[in-house]
Amino acid sequence: MKKLPNQLLWYNKENKVISCDETNKVLNENYLEIMNLIQNSFDDAILMGCDETDFKKKLTTLINNLDFSLGKK
After folding, report:
1. Which residue has the higher pLDDT, 11 or 7?
2. pLDDT of residue 18
3. Residue 38 near residue 30, CB atoms below 8 Å
4. Are the C-beta atoms of 47 and 12 separated by less than 8 Å?
5. Calpha distance 39→11 (Å, rounded)
6. Mean pLDDT over residues 1-18, rounded?
7. Using 50, 70 and 90 to split pLDDT, how confident is the model at 60?
8. DSSP string, the chain
């Protein structure tokens, strides 16, 4: 399992750093969890013969098509 080299800075809609320690902790934990899931999926895909570029392109499309799912922003 990979670890974050440093804690990431997270920004709000006004482009200000989020200062709440608990919020940053949750966001960094979520990021690490996603990073590990993607890495494992990528490794599986390559081992099963998928093209690296195709896999990354599909993930990029997935990320670019994300929408907020809990109502209006």
Report:
1. 11
2. 94
3. no
4. no
5. 25
6. 83
7. very high
8. ----SSPPP-B-TTS-B---HHHHHHHHHHHHHHHHHHHHHHHHHHHTT--HHHHHHHHHHHHHT----SS--
